[in-house]
Amino acid sequence: MSIRHGLLALLVGGPRHGSGLRTEFAACTGSARSPGIGRVRAALGRLERDGMVTREGVDEAGRTLYALTEAGRAEVRAWYARPVKRDGPPRDELVLKLVLAAETPGVDVRQVVETQRRHASEALHDSVRRRAEALSRPPGCPGEVARLLVLEQLVWHAEAEVRWLDHCEARLLRLDLPGDAGTEG
Questions:
Q1: Taking the C-alpha atoms of 156, 161, 166 and 169 in order, what is their torsion angle to the nearest 10 degrees?
Q2: pLDDT tens sequence for the chain (185 residues)
Q3: Using alpha carbons only, what angle is made at residue 169 by residues 164 and 171, rounded to the nearest 5 degrees?
Q4: At the top level of CATH, which class does the domain 3-81 belong to?
Q5: SS3 (DSSP) at 138
Q6: How many distinct helices (H) and strands (E) make up the chain?
Q7: What does the domain layout of the chain look like in residue ranges?
Q8: Which residues form the Transcription regulator PadR N-terminal domain (predicted)?
């Protein structure tokens, strides 16, 4: 997710300070996806430079408050209106690891696949459990609906990863590669 657009979207609700935005970002997207405060401050600086936000005083604790400008509001509307592009393969550590494992002497790529599949299956189980817990309670606020959407994305992502790893294993078996593809001798 674009930190830039995430911050702009959060500011639609009114002026906020950097650490408050970081906290809200974490609450909406899950703490594992929360940017560090340094990244938030740097993004706010760039948004201010680009005319998307403006400083609007300080709060009772002396923290700088940021508010959307009209240009910022227009950018948020435009962001919601355009699709997220999927132009090329994402920079995915797992893909890189498997590609390199397949070409590295002494590495059993099938073992790398199996290790990742176990991890993805555990993540899937955990996400399904957390989603079931969230669904057992009626949503009391928009934040709970947002959390449910994040949990559902985690379930779908883990399911897709397990399916892809199953495909990778089948491909490796069809290619009849030895267990340690890179072993010479």
A1: 170
A2: 578 998 999 999 899 999 999 888 877 776 556 788 889 999 999 999 999 999 999 999 999 999 999 999 999 999 988 887 777 666 678 888 888 888 788 889 899 999 999 999 999 999 999 999 888 887 777 778 888 888 899 999 999 999 999 999 999 888 876 555 444 43
A3: 90
A4: mainly alpha
A5: coil
A6: 7, 3
A7: 3-81, 93-174
A8: 7-77
